[in-house]
Amino acid sequence: MLNIEDLLRIGPVMPLVTLEDASVAEEVARALVRAGVRIMEVALRTPAALRAIEALARRVPEIRVGAGTVRTVKDLRAAVAAGAAFAVSPGATPSLLDAARRESIPYLPAIASASELMVGFEAGYRCFKFFPAGPAGGPAFLEALAGPFPEARFCPTGGITARTLRSYLEVRSVLCVGGSWITPASALAQRDWKRIERLARTALAAARAPRR
């Protein structure tokens, strides 16, 4: 099993998908795979999410599927049972940080401040989701953290777009970026898989451009 840092390095872009209908999960994932994406996050925000993760774990082995919006230990255990390759939270709690160390899949807690980062460090974590990245300070905030916390690694999510993803990836502590702009609700509703594939290709091309 890959650890969370290895998984994030699969990026450099991790689409975040919110699915109202589990039956379209495979089509979404295959569109992303055709574009070259090898990791995605399915948000646990709908009743369909766990069924979608379970289906993708069985049917689309070409892509690593994580469970996002994990807010409780119950959510974490449900993600494991569904076959998620990893779990991601929009924040962190002491109970989640503790329980995740004993689970069978890697876990990515989120931070939005230096104090939260120190709590995560104290619990043994070194990789974090930075959320909400835009409102919380963007690339400049991550650059500022590099001084006192050089070993921290991040996956920023929240408010990132195709135009801003490069500014995050140019921060040395950033392993990948996450976001929902690649799988917009309108494309999912219209089952426009070609549009999702095109958005994913554009994001990967921007992300893989040489660093300045």
What structural keywords apply?
single chain; TIM Barrel; alpha/beta; three-stranded parallel beta sheet; 42% helix; 212 residues
Verbal overview:
The protein is an alpha/beta fold and 212 residues long. It has a single domain, classed as Alpha-Beta Barrel (TIM Barrel). The protein is 42% helix and 16% strand. It is built from ten helices and nine strands. The strands form two sheets. Strands 5-4-3-2-1-9 form a six-stranded parallel beta sheet. β3, α4 and β4 (86-88) form a beta-alpha-beta unit. The radius of gyration is 16 Å and the shape is globular. The protein starts with a helix and ends in a 5-residue tail after the last helix. The model has no long low-confidence stretch (mean pLDDT 96).
* Strand line-up of the largest beta sheet: 5-4-3-2-1-9
The level 1 CATH classification is: Alpha Beta
Beta-strand portion reads 15-25%
Pattern of helices and strands: HEHEHEHEHEEHEHEHEHH
CATH topology: TIM Barrel
**Portion of residues in helices?**
40-55%
Major sheet: 6 strands, parallel
Number of strands: 9
Short description:
The chain has 212 residues and is of the alpha/beta class. 42% of the residues lie in helices and 16% in strands. The chain has one domain: TIM Barrel (Alpha-Beta Barrel), CATH 3.20.20.70.
